[in-house]
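Hi R.,

Here's the chain you asked about this morning:
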Amino acid sequence: MSTEAASAESAHGDGHGHAHPKWLAHHFDTPAQQFDAAKLGMWVFLAQELLFFSGLFVAYGVYRSWYPEMFKAASHQLDKIMGATNTIVLLFSSLTAALAVRSAQVGNKKATGNYLLVTIGCACMFLVIKFFEYKHKFEAGLLPGRFFHPHLEHLAHGSPPLPANTGSFFGIYFMMTGIHGVHVIVGIGILIWIWLRNNRGEFSKEYFTAVDIAALYWHLVDLVWIYLFPLLYLI
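And the predicted structure, written out as tokens:
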């Protein structure tokens, strides 16, 4: 049983015979039951998200097996420094998200809010870096499919020539990083909502489920990028 569930259940008791805390939904008998249901639901959702992204990874694998030299040449046009910076930013944000959960577990409202703000700031920094990456691709004409019209003056210095079908690579690049970016934006919205709730004093040692669930989602966002970075930028 979780720390939250154990402490809340011991204070509240079992069954409907006692008044429910305001954070305990009416359709649950105990805080432990609510916590376990929320955690299970989130893990099911994350499994679905992994299945969704796995389709994109399969497409990547198929196209790379068909055009290995094209993928190798195209990857030189991605900014490895920006990609690595974003990797560090997301890894650090996962740490602060976990620290926010720990702070909520011990009832430290101020620390929880501060860690959430740092996580939100890291997420925004990720999007700013990604904006400049996308901006360069548009300026260089490195776009998907029939929109692929590279401008030589904007290409990476000393990079190998790009085959005519390189637009396929950038189609996969924009699809995978774009969908991931949408998840980052959704994550920012969720974290802001959690931060506002924390400021209102809704979380305590007895109830921190929402902070825990939001952090789980954010860890998924980080995990997906950990795979995207080497596959697109390094290999």
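The chain has seven helices and no strands.

Let me know if you need anything else.
M.
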